[in-house]
Specification:
With about 375 residues, this protein is an all-alpha fold. Among the domains are: about 160 residues, Serine Threonine Protein Phosphatase 5, Tetratricopeptide repeat (Alpha Horseshoe), CATH 1.25.40; about 100 residues, Serine Threonine Protein Phosphatase 5, Tetratricopeptide repeat (Alpha Horseshoe). Helix 11 runs antiparallel to helix 12 and helix 18 runs antiparallel to helix 19.
Length: about 375
């Protein structure tokens, strides 16, 4: 996920339930606003009376209007003025701190954003929707800033007080535990999030499978991948996840079968997809012809790059299937693109085996020119009569 996308997601989470202008107007007048959604019905916290002080009503309204227009540079001093005023009550200050945290985050000042969010929570004056949005926002910023212990502590408080079982809240904790390499603790939390989600979330499932693999629970990872793949047969990501799990378990036949189904249905459209399939075949005994077919198809379609790695794999598969001329042709294409002289040396050896001594010497010299850790073999070929 890019920084921009991550930032927008984080802000969106924290702003859910933010007081509307109408609510503030009503509070300023001492009236009641339209009933809002109660996001934390099971919260243990008894929310205080949320009311803007009459003396600060205009300033609070101006801050909200400015913030809602995304005028963050202008909103910042307005929030600071409310926070500094002795006319502001705790609710005024908590609301200003919440908006200031969002403002600072949108201005790329994460440290200030954390400070303001913590202040909004510590003042303990907001309604539950906004109080816990501030707490969740603070936890996310801490976790994204690699403050894992502090972030997890804040998140645990949030989950404990709200009693939230929402999958999007649980996955935050599961991901935090994963980042802290506490894989066994992460598994039940992530599993609960996955099972509670209305639709399979590929990234969450991948995270759960990663935890299983990190704790040597390959069978569980495989079972999970198979279940998801069976439920979503047209989901390419789910099928690729299954193939990856099979590969990590050294089940090459099963992985190849999954990838071949994708190939047959025209879903192998990325270079990494073709590369994964031909590498899978290359690791299997007697699958040289399949390796060659996949590589050639990928190159012909313009999906596979005709680079050193691709031609080297083609050369090796051709060589081990006794297609020597094809192997030589592939090595000749691979060698100039190689980072060192090793590929030229292999080509020289094959030329020598085929009795093509002049070509073997030419390739051996090219190997020396490109650089070899052990040049002795190339020099032996050059000394042939």
């Amino acid at each position: 996920m890019s920084n921009n996308i991550a930032r927008k997601t984080l802000v969106a989470l924290a702003l859910v339930g933010l007081l509307s202008t109408a609510s503030v107007d009503a509070a300023t007048r001492g009236g009641k606003s339209k009933k809002e959604e109660v996001r934390y019905p099971d919260a243990t916290r008894v929310a205080p009376e949320a009311k803007v002080s009459p003396k600060m009503g205009k300033q609070v309204q101006k801050l909200i209007d400015t913030f809602n227009k995304d005028e963050y540079e202008a909103a910042k001093p307005l929030a600071e003025e409310i926070l500094a005023s002795d006319k502001s009550n705790n609710y005024d200050k908590a609301l200003a701190a919440l908006l200031a945290s969002q403002t600072a985050y949108n201005l790329d000042d994460v440290e200030a954003a954390k400070t303001y969010a913590r202040q909004a929570v510590d003042l303990n004056a907001l309604d539950n929707n906004n109080h816990y949005s501030a707490m969740q926002f603070l936890a996310q910023m801490q976790l994204q800033n690699d403050e894992n212990e502090e972030g997890l502590k804040t998140l645990d408080r949030y989950l404990s007080e709200t009693k939230s079982q929402k999958p999007e809240d649980l996955i935050l904790k599961g991901n935090a535990l994963y980042q802290m390499e506490r894989y066994q603790e992460a598994i039940p939390v992530i599993k609960q999030a996955v099972e509670a989600s209305p639709e399979p979330n590929t990234s969450w499932v991948q995270l759960l499978m990663a935890c299983y693999l990190e704790t040597d629970q390959g069978v569980q990872a495989m079972q999970l991948a198979e279940q998801i793949a069976a439920k979503t047969p047209d989901d390419k990501k789910a099928q690729l996840n299954l193939a990856n799990v099979y590969l990590q378990a050294d089940k090459y036949d099963e992985a190849a079968a999954v990838l071949e189904k994708l190939r047959a249905s025209g879903q192998l459209t990325d270079e990494r997809d073709y590369r994964q399939l031909y590498i899978t075949y290359a690791n299997m005994d007697g699958k040289e012809k399949e390796t060659i077919a996949v590589i050639k198809e990928g190159i012909d379609k313009g999906v596979l790059k005709p680079d050193h790695q691709t031609y080297l794999a083609l050369a090796q598969a051709s060589y081990y299937s006794d297609q020597i001329p094809e192997a030589i042709a592939a090595w000749e294409k691979a060698a100039p693109m190689a980072p060192n002289g090793d590929t030229y040396l292999n080509l020289a050896r094959v030329y020598w085996q085929e009795g093509r001594i002049p070509d073997a010497k030419r390739a051996a010299q090219a190997a020396l020119d490109k650089g070899l850790k052990k040049p002795e073999d190339a020099r032996k070929i050059l000394s042939l009569k």
